[in-house]
């Protein structure tokens, strides 16, 4: 069956559902741990990792470069680790 992402955690109790692919954001809202309650977690090489994009005409703009440098920092990785209880994998 196909459902919206926000509905997936609720169907885990349905005996007709064998498996669900649920994003970290939705699974965490249920109180489950992506690290401890998952049978599989994608790594940073997943084709489904979040991608940051910019328009072609401003991809080299200073503010875009500053944002990327800030976002791809150890501080952001540590914050994501805390916020998502180890379930967020930095994709850089």
TrEMBL record:
Subcellular localization: Cell membrane
GO CC terms in record: plasma membrane
Bilayer disposition of the protein: Lipid-anchor
Chief site of localization: membrane
Domain of life assignment: Bacteria
Keywords (A to Z) from UniProt: Lipoprotein, Membrane, Palmitate, Signal
Record PANTHER family: D-METHIONINE-BINDING LIPOPROTEIN METQ, D-METHIONINE-BINDING LIPOPROTEIN METQ-RELATED
Family the UniProt entry places it in: Belongs to the NlpA lipoprotein family.
Annotated protein name in UniProt: Lipoprotein-28
Biological source species: Escherichia coli
Origin organism lineage: Bacteria, Pseudomonadati, Pseudomonadota, Gammaproteobacteria, Enterobacterales
Gene this protein is translated from: nlpA
